[in-house]
Sequence to fold (149 residues):
Amino acid sequence: MKEGRDANGEANQQFVDLNSMKFYVASSFKNVDSVRYVTEQLIRKGFIYTYDWTRGKEISTIEQLMEIGHQEKNAVFAADFIIVMLPAGKGSHIELGIAIGQAKKIYLYSPNEDVYNMDITSSFYHLEEIDLFIGSIDELIEYVSGRSK
Fold:
């Protein structure tokens, strides 16, 4: 592996190809372990992660919250594609909206068929530009890496 730099300019031994596509993963704090797993696997495959919100520290001020908002917004802007992992939080849905507005490639991951439940689904999940994937996380990783290179 070659030494590369992540989106924050920090040295990282895991990057293989500096010309790889950049990605962002949106989800809720309930899914932190899954988000980290997906991120680590895609980095190993040579993708570049634009921002790791899962490593954030405790937030106690509006100024800190605003800074995180800027970082997350910029990460979506910088990404070639995003993955939204359901169930997702309110911030993830805003990030989804930003990605739709920026015409980004969007993968929407659901571990089950709940995405078709009319009581909990969103109209935005079913837009033509959304690539909906239902299955295991490992299957998601293979699916995304096969379509995003």
